[in-house]
Design a protein that fits this description.
With 174 residues, this protein is an alpha+beta fold. It has helices at 11-33, 38-60, 118-128, 136-143, 150-169; strands spanning 5-8, 62-65, 69-74, 77-82, 88-94, 97-104, 107-112. It has a four-stranded antiparallel sheet with strand order 1-2-3-4. The chain has a three-stranded antiparallel sheet with strand order 5-6-7. The termini are far apart.
């Protein structure tokens, strides 16, 4: 019987993103209740859409690994690659963001270091794919996986900014 290992997006990113989404919705409701200008309300509604999509996609994304395959679950979608069919494992680094690509013919998966326990995830994947499919860059990545925190910091800054805007919107004085 194979052991399932599950990896999901870091909670340290999901929490501030969820707070940010909640604040946006509260501000949108306040704008409607207070009769704010329509343009302001429309712009806020447009801002809410990508934040809601990002939160929903990030919250629902998870990767499940067993001895034979890797399955990535996304919002309303699922993709499966069998380890025996993987022909290449490549890495792309953009600053501190790492992307791991698993290729099996025309099918592929792209995984980033937004996942919690990324070093363990890379180790698990590399232990199951055919050894000759792993690139040298990927082996180097596995030896020293990068940690990324700028997305988390950006989310918390957005939370602080929206908290300030909500304070002003509710009649707060400086």
């Amino acid at each position: 019987m194979s052991v399932l290992q599950t990896f999901s997006i870091r909670k340290s990113f999901l929490v501030p993103l969820g707070v940010l989404l909640t604040q946006c919705v509260v501000l949108f409701i306040l704008c409607l209740v207070q009769g704010q200008p329509v343009a302001k309300t429309i712009i806020l509604g447009i801002i809410i859409l990508p934040v809601a999509v990002l939160f929903t996609e990030s919250f629902s994304r998870r990767m499940v690994v067993n001895d034979e395959k890797v399955t990535v679950f996304k919002f309303l979608r699922r993709k499966v690659l069998r380890f025996s069919e993987i022909t290449a494992v490549e890495t792309v680094m953009v600053r501190k963001r790492a992307f791991l690509t698993l290729c099996a013919g025309d099918d592929f998966l792209i995984l980033s270091n937004a996942y919690a326990e990324f070093p363990a995830m890379v180790e698990v994947l590399l232990s199951r794919v055919p050894p000759d499919s792993v690139s040298e860059e990927t082996r180097k990545l596995a030896a020293a996986p990068p940690a990324k925190s700028t997305d988390i910091v950006s989310c918390w800054l957005g939370v602080l900014l929206l908290a300030f805007i909500l304070y002003i919107q509710l009649g707060g004085r400086l």
